[in-house]
């Protein structure tokens, strides 16, 4: 049986850190402010791959001093303690120094320390990281194996991008950072705003433009060519299909010369002939226009297009859906429904069937009001269904018939929503499907396969609609 005495061994080796009697190496750390650290080559070789390589070099063995000007004395003192003792307490260190330790551990090939510091910054220094995104990003994007912290930073920016993209530091972003942001599907910024930011960034990054030459009307062909060269890697990342026709005319067209010809031809064909582009990225970014547990944002855009009776790319305004009521959160209760939804203006209702993936819903363009069995007239209401939360191919819609507009919406304060006694939440908390003849002939397809039936919903969501 082998006896283990690691604790004593570690204690004795650790004591060498403060024993300068037999050191044979001096590490000079820092640039403007320098400090010398005595060390033992045998410890450095055993614990640090960087120094193992350096101390095995023939020329280096003739020297006993190493200069590391890009690592400050404060940070190297932390490194040396880790090397000698295997211990490190980062509790009282500034975020800036911990970030510096991350860079130093990468350069010195200290993989264990590098992994630990990266996780420490994410788990323990998140507030500091979020306040210093640009500083952190410029450091970590230069480190090959720092994907975890890179992704954390970019993901945090995506969670609240407005302060970041409007900051004065944004035009000075490193190109790799900007590329990492723009390629993400979860960068929840409207494409027209992203385009504006990219143009500003490109102007700032292009010699001869910016503060020196900020008036686009005075640019020469060579100025446009230089800007095109700057922006070239980023153009394929822009989701041009997300621009409205007005945004295309006002924002894209003036910069036609900086967009590759093949891409610009596809943009024009898309807007003028509705030809689906082949190379343009058609995946919309996951902009949280709706915080729904039942449908994805892309389905909210489809519903908005039904409201305006237009194609999605031709919408005149941007819509946002604010949650008013959710049965799993607020309880399946008529009084609660009425308290939260009455008087809120036009609303979208979503209903989840309990035994299938089907989503049903209706659009009330008027208001939910406290009435006792009254019908309200509108020609704009409709009911619909999706096969599941992501169905953008087989969805069905039934609009109120013009001749029956006076029966489009029924308001009964003892019940929940009621789309003309066709789709409604009864006082017994069941969803009922009926064909009263008020909605068009597609009503049977919309309510299939539960027409004439009723069920207790798995979930109900109601959203107030805003247009911007």
TrEMBL record:
It comes from the Eukaryota. CDD domains: BTB_POZ_ZBTB_KLHL-like. PROSITE patterns: BTB, TLDC. It holds the Pfam family TLD. InterPro entries: BTB-POZ/Galectin-3-binding, BTB/POZ_dom, SKP1/BTB/POZ_sf, TLDc_dom. Residues 23-92 form the BTB domain. Residues 293-466 form the TLDc domain. This is Kelch-like protein 17. It comes from Rhizophagus irregularis.
